[in-house]
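call fold(seq) -> tokens
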Amino acid sequence: MSCVFIVTPIVVANWSAVTAVISATAAHAGYRMVRSATEGKEEHLQEVELELGNSEVMADRLRRGETMTLAKEGVTITLSLDARGRLKASVKGPEDVSKEELRLEGQRFLDKVTQQYAYQSVMSELKQKGFSLVDEQVDEDGRIRLKIRKYE
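ret:
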């Protein structure tokens, strides 16, 4: 017997849990943490703002104005919470990178953060329910397929 389910997560967690997922995703994508968007010394002339649609991050541990900035090849992504507690990304890059390219890079990164959050949530829940991971595959398009089993 098998089943297929698609997880569309609503990211609800405290800031420390979300930053752990962001840090892991950033490292995997080749980004490094920086102190500020100007640390890379590139002059950023293009900027786009993005929001993670299904996020409700509880700011119980987030101090006002706290951000997380990541850099890779002249592009910086600064993550923060808006007034409603939703995760926002400000993506900046040099003049030779179009706003559309920045938007796509930022959206790809936020999509990976969402996927990793969902993956960790699902794996944690499966473990709590007594399921075992039998096989895991990542398709070329990034889809993660899990084969699980539960013995009674």
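The chain has one domain: 11-147.
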